[in-house]
Amino acid sequence: MILGSGWGGFKLLRDMDKKSYDVVAVSPRNHFVFTPLLASTSVGTLEFRCITEPVRGYRDVEYHQAWSDAIDFEKSKVDCTLNLPKVPRTYIHKSPTETLEDTNKFTLDYDHLILAVGSYSNTFNIPGVKEHAYFLKEVADARKIRARVLECFERAEMSRSDEERNGLLHFAVVGGGPTGVEFSSELHDFIREDCSRLFPDLMNHVTLAVYDVAPTILASFDKSLAQYCMNKFKRSGIEVRTGTVVEKVEDGKLILKDGKEVPFGCLVWSTGLTENPLTASLEGKVLKSKNKRILTDGYLRVLDPNGKVIPNVYALGDCATIKDHELPQTAQVANQQANYLRKSLNKLAKNPEKSLEEVVQPFSFKNRGSMAYIGNWEAVVDMTKVNDNAKESGRLAWVFWRSSYLTMSVSMRNKMLIPMYWFMTWVFGRDVSSFQEYDRFKKLDA
Ligand SMILES: Cc1cc2nc3c(=O)[nH]c(=O)nc-3n(C[C@H](O)[C@H](O)[C@H](O)COP(=O)(O)OP(=O)(O)OC[C@H]3O[C@@H](n4cnc5c(N)ncnc54)[C@H](O)[C@@H]3O)c2cc1C
């Protein structure tokens, strides 16, 4: 049983040997998301369909569109709740006491369990973030951001004062890691290439800023590449406000630690990751790292609070890390781990009398470097972990960035759609239709 359909879970459910295993997948999301290109969809450089792969495409996998809520390791059972609307009341007939809630609950048994449930965005409990900021983890998030950016421009067009216009057209990104940087770059491209054409009178009011507590953005990259990105942002007019602490967020307003208040129209929050509710529910049942990731041994087997292996339970990707070998929370790690676990379990099935230690070596992560898009057809590629001098920035890096992600995209359909949309965006610009619905009769002051 595989929990999750992200980088770790999806690869496993696709590639496991179905002759040896009956594969059951449980995930609230019925598709895989190719996250490296998610920021591109949030402004319409690519369409959402270009970066998703449906789980239902794999008919040899038993799939349940559900959340796993709790795990009983002793009984090898997982409690789940369907991530679907409840059935109409007419169909409640099992027992007179059955509630609508009950019809969404079910329990599954497993022989082998793989946890690949990812993580949530970390708000560090800063007041107002959950209520007023947008996150960028799912297609639904990208869709909301795209609608909000357009909303800000349309609203600003009808604003009654410059103060209001400036506030609505201040786009704030909190977090200068790769996700924050790539989103800012995509948004800047959208504003420069499309909004400037569609809303020319508003351009003097637009500002875009990246806020980070650290002294630099792209802190995990080679220093010279991080500096290259900072310089490029400054030249492009993207403000980089490093060493800035956000203390509170209110409706349309950031409140900084130094007391300054910054009005914004759209705030995107990307300051790192924290455990999700399922991982949190395993407190006391599994060993966890300082930053609340499930700890495994080198074979990706989950450890109990005493450090002993829990039989037939594995964890990988963002939700887990190897004891004494902290791994980065990246698609690269999740992908390599899924590949490793697939091979291990397939070998185990062929040699049932042997233990995992006898059929495979422990997992070892091969860092192949990192890349980030930094706008205006430029990128940074950092492979200094592979070779000291292997780094590139600018247009050549951008060609490498695009071709790598095109090669890595999963299906033939997306390998065709992605370049097609890149070309269409280049020729016709991004689509600015918004499908957002508003309640015309809602009392605005209520
Ligand atoms: C915008 C963005 C850009 C990124 N760019 C890069 C990049 O360029 N390179 C890179 O290496 N990494 C990148 N990453 C990081 C990368 O996406 C993650 O490290 C990777 O997705 C982790 O894979 P995972 O399988 O652990 O989790 P995820 O891919 O997050 O998948 C988790 C899955 O678990 C499901 N799930 C959640 N809760 C439950 C539950 N209770 N029960 C069952 N299922 C559950 C979710 O619906 C989802 O299907 C990026 C991330 C983002 C958000």
From TrEMBL:
It comes from the Eukaryota. One of its GO terms (molecular function) is NADH dehydrogenase activity. Transmembrane segments: none annotated. Residues 1-338 form the FAD/NAD(P)-binding domain. The keyword Iron-sulfur does not apply. Keywords: FAD, Flavoprotein, NAD, Oxidoreductase. Residues 368-431 form the External alternative NADH-ubiquinone oxidoreductase-like C-terminal domain. One of its GO terms (cellular component) is mitochondrion. InterPro entries: FAD/NAD-bd_sf (IPR036188), FAD/NAD-binding_dom (IPR023753), NDH-2 (IPR045024), NDH2-like_C (IPR054585). Gene3D superfamilies: 3.50.50.100. Pfam families: NDH2_C (PF22366), Pyr_redox_2 (PF07992). Belongs to the NADH dehydrogenase family. PANTHER family: NADH DEHYDROGENASE, NADH DEHYDROGENASE-RELATED. This is NDE1, mitochondrial external NADH dehydrogenase. It comes from Lobosporangium transversale.
